[in-house]
Amino acid sequence: MPTPLDFFTSLIGKKLDHTPSSAGNWLEGTLLEVSKSHIKVRYQVRPDMCNPARILHGGVASLMLDDAIGMANFVTGTEYLMTSINLSVDFLSSAQIGEDLDLTADLVRSGANINHWEAVIRKNNGKIVAKASSNMIKTHVKMSDLKL
């Protein structure tokens, strides 16, 4: 049986539309890089991701950040499911329909019960759209029981 890292490594360069996350599948990101402490995903802003001003909705940006952090945390190989206990997001600039956005997430600290992540969404020109930090806490649910 492949490890979570093996599974996601096989998806590099592919659209993320068949992962265990239905919400993440809707985003249709493309996995660019993955390791046990880092992930990079590219998203293209679609009209259905936008607010009435036709710019990326903050809730969708938050979903991108939370989902990528969740994928990256899954790849760490933890025996137990971990879930977000917080997500702090700063929205720093807007993104327009059709723009490509690169999201990177990095593991800052891995503890016995909590993993701390930081993530950034950037435009092609390097400008930061949003940045986040999140803590993931270990649950009592074994990953092997999820049948993913």
Automatic annotation (TrEMBL):
UniProt GO molecular function: 1,4-dihydroxy-2-naphthoyl-CoA thioesterase activity
Q: Where is the Thioesterase domain?
A: 55-129
Pfam families, alphabetized: 4HBT
Q: Which domain of life is it from?
A: Bacteria
**Keyword tags:** Hydrolase
Q: Which CDD domains match?
A: PaaI_thioesterase (cd03443)
Sorted alphabetically, the Gene Ontology cellular component annotations on this record are:
cytosol
Family per record: Belongs to the thioesterase PaaI family.
The identity of this protein, by name, is Uncharacterized domain 1-containing protein
